[in-house]
């Protein structure tokens, strides 16, 4: 699916322009113990006239018949891009998570593919999260938004925890 770059979009936002919009679809989450479970997801990324994209995601488990079930997670944040200090382009994703954590990702964009690695993971004293490092990859394939999320904790090495394919609606 072709996308248009809005004329009012700041130049620093051009590498992220393809992600703007509302996306919905289905993914797979790796549960503790090795089980996998399907989930539904809605993601909204919007340019608010400033030099970033706002980001909101909510997901829920799907029943065996595909009907929405219990909430899985939500997150919100900001996508930014700009000079990496050496003349290249850096992409940043700043996320706030409801389990009492914030994650800051830094990476690179190449066309409609973005690869990010955590630069900071911080938790409140009451946080239920245990992530120590993470990676995310986003890409456009056949007009859809595909993403994958890998996580490491104090007790486990980096491993895939979720991925999804979302269609623009």
TrEMBL record:
Coiled-coil region:
none
Q: What InterPro entries is this protein classified in?
A: Calycin, Nb(III)_bact/plant, Nitrobindin, THAP4-like_heme-bd
Q: Where is the THAP4-like heme-binding domain?
A: 13-168
Q: Where is this motif: GXWXGXG?
A: 21-27
Q: Can you tell which superkingdom this protein's organism belongs to?
A: Bacteria
Matches recorded under HAMAP family: nitrobindin
The family line of this record is:
Belongs to the nitrobindin family.
Name under which the protein is recorded:
Ferric nitrobindin-like protein
> Origin organism of this chain?
Pseudokineococcus lusitanus
